[in-house]
Write a structure and sequence with these properties.
- By secondary structure, this protein is mainly alpha-helical.
- It has helices at 2-10, 16-24, 30-38, 41-45, 61-71, 86-97.
- Helix 1 runs antiparallel to helix 2 and helix 5 (61-71) crosses helix 6 (86-97).
- The termini are far apart.
Amino acid sequence: MMTLSTLLIGARNRRPIWFETGKAMIAVDTLVHNFLHRTGILGTCGIPHAYGAACYAHGGCAEIIRTLADRIDARTLNRAFPQRFPRFVQNAIWRYCAGDGLNLCNGNRIDDRHACEIGYCYLYQKCSRKPLKQQKKRSKINHL
């Protein structure tokens, strides 16, 4: 979906309707979902859920990204952008996490069982740093 969206956006001058479609497409992959979970955004703004179809349901990741896009005037970043640009917001999150991007908030850098410890991260002070996986509690067995 990310590639299709990029192709549709790229045809802006020749196919304006394609651009309108592409700018609204949101692809929630594991990087985007896990970012929303780790930062605490998913728990605060949406309905916490496992990665999958729920990302596109009411209160899921895609709705959170659309809400963020409503609050960001993308024209301040590039005058050629539309004011509301959900795909740009989703892509910015993806690039923040992706190994080919800033490579900060991902499973290669953070042990999913523990809170993030990347102190130089731009979001460190505001991030909830939630682990993706719950640690299993060990039960104590009393021996007689």
